[in-house]
Structure formats: C-alpha cells, structure tokens
Amino acid sequence: MSNAALKLPPLMSVAEFLVWPGDGTGARYELVEGEVRAQDPASDAHGTIQSNLVQVIGSHLRAARPNCRVVSAPGVQPRLRSEWNFRIPDLGVTCAPNLRGAVMMPDPVLLIEILSPGNARDTWSNIPLYATLPTVMAVLIVHAAIFKAELLTRDPVSGWAADASLFSGPDMVVPLACIGLNLPLAAVYVDTFLAG
Description:
Blueprint: H1 14-19, E1 29-32, E2 35-38, H2 44-64, E3 69-72, E4 91-94, E5 108-115, H3 120-130, E6 138-143, E7 148-155, E8 159-160, E9 165-168, E10 173-176, E11 181-184, H4 185-188
Parallel strand pairs: 5-6
Antiparallel strand pairs: 1-2, 3-4, 4-5, 6-7, 7-8, 7-9, 10-11
C-alpha cells in the first residue's frame, strides 16, 4: 500500500518527523530516507523475547552499572544521512541520563533488534546505520523464529568486526562486553515456543 493510500506525508526531514502527529491509527513509525515506514506489530514470541531482554539486562545494569539503563523502542538518529533517518530499534542501552523532553536516546552503547521473518529486510537495513553512531559498541540481533543471536562488535582501536559472532542453542552465552554482561541465550527465550 502506498503512502498516499495510508495518508502518510511525502518526504520529510527528521525535524518534521519529530513533530508529525502521526496518521491517527496509533501505529509506530520510523523515518527511512525521508519516508515514514510503519513498524509491524510484534508477534507474541517477539514481545516475550523483548520483555526477557529488558528483565535480564535491566537487572544486570541496576546491580553492576547503576548509571546505565535499558530503553524500549529508543529513537536514534544515525550519522549517515542524518537529516532523513530516524530509526527505532527494539531496545537500547545508554549510560547517559534521561533528560526532560528528550525524544532520542542519548549516547547508546548497545542496540538490540529482534528479527522476525516479516521484518527481516527492514531490520537489516537499520544495522549499518546504527554502526555510524560513535558511542555504539555493539549491535545484537536476536531471532524470534529460531534459537539464534548474532553480535556485531566494535573495537575502540580497530573498529567494527567484519562478521557477526553467531550464537545458537540453549547453552550459549553472548558476551556483551560493552555493558559487562555475559547474556545466557536460554534466558532470552524463556516462555517462548523455542524454550523447548
């Protein structure tokens, strides 16, 4: 369906997008190259995985890094073509304080996407743009249809690793060094059909 059929505006900048009142449906949108793109509703598995991640990461941060916080659906503005892009990952972690009226997550260190079969192309199109944010040290992609996670990491000296590290199976642990957490993959899939 075209933007016109959905009554969506033509090309807009991030500044225009941030004051756009929406289309009245309550749908969530992100800005992709100046066009608003609806985000698909989350599946039950997707939502459960997201809740599990918030719980595990949030508990870790409160205990080990109380100045950091996990945020659901944080808005981020990539450095590449920044005037035309405002993306919304599933989760983000920042160690910057929350400020009154802030729309975007300040200084994210970790961004997380939950990959469902229906949103794979849109999700993967966001990943290279997340890497343009200078504070982002890792991007975690968690699959909602299979027991698998992919981790892209940035070394402060050598930059981004050429390939993602793959993790699959309930005994795997994902090393999120940027927040000091070894994330048990089994904890991510608790209460989903993949838990076994």
